[in-house]
Amino acid sequence: MPSTRVEILIHKLISNSLTPEELDELLMLLEDSEEDITKVLKEYFDRLVNDQ
Predict the structure, then answer these.
(1) pLDDT tens, position by position, 1-52
(2) The whole model's pTM is what?
């Protein structure tokens, strides 16, 4: 379950439930925390691969 704001927004993005305002927030966070975003996405896709 996502715990940080970045994780929550990425989860919503992937599940196609992100609002326009949340997209703006995510894009702003991308500029500030690229490493965090990369880590979250890697963990998410690793889970997808391992669950199959």
Answers:
(1) 567 888 888 889 889 999 999 999 988 888 877 667 788 788 888 888 887 6
(2) 0.66
Q: Could you tell me the residue ranges of all domains in the chain?
A: 5-51
Q: Are 6 and 33 in contact (CB under 8 A)?
A: yes
Asked if residue 18 lies in contact with residue 9, where contact means CB atoms within 8 angstroms, the answer is yes
Give per-residue burial for 2-40: e unless 16+ CB within 10 Å, then b: eeeebbbbbebeeeeebeeeeeeebeebeeeeeebbeeb
C-alpha span between 21 and 41 (Å, rounded):
20
